[in-house]
Amino acid sequence: MSWNISEIELLKKMYKQGETCESIARALNKTIPAVRNKAWRLGITDNREYTEEEKAYIISNYKSYNLREIAEKLNRPKENICRFIREQGIERTGKKKNETYHQTRLYRIYHCMKERCYNVKNTAYKYYGGRGITICAEWLNDFQAFYKWAIANGYSETLTIDRVNVNGIYEPNNCRWATRAEQVKNRRCARKNAGA
Predict the structure, then answer these.
(1) Which of 13, 14, 158, 176 is deepest in the core (most CB within 10 A)?
(2) Phi, psi of 5 (to 5 degrees)
(3) Looking at residue 163, what DSSP letter applies?
């Protein structure tokens, strides 16, 4: 499929404005694969920031290893999906599907949460599992469910998971993302002192 100079210029302009491949293809009367291929050959990249929903979708569906379908669903170049995955520290290592996330901070938070609730050898077990603090069935063996909740509820690299009711379990309705200072104020001893 041949491209004339005006089509190429419009392609560059629309990409720069953050237009989707679909809208560019409609405007130029081209197929989406043709637009993506031409943009790739010209070195044009889709620099739009991923929304939190898009991030959650990529992470949740990466286990399928079908990057083409993910790219088509999000209307993004496959190369950009690959770059995002690398930036998140998620690599294809040949490990079991649930282990592909082990390098991320969010997975470490999830793992530590399970350890202090269920591993009697964990030094923090007496404060959590030893007091009957558990993890809801929705999260217990499904990191994807936890991940989606985290992204949708304000997770950031500077926050930690906090239970609103310190005597309640880890579940969506009882958890939030908080700063260290907020978390300290929400400890059992702090609440007792405030009520004294």
Answers:
(1) 14
(2) -60, -40
(3) E
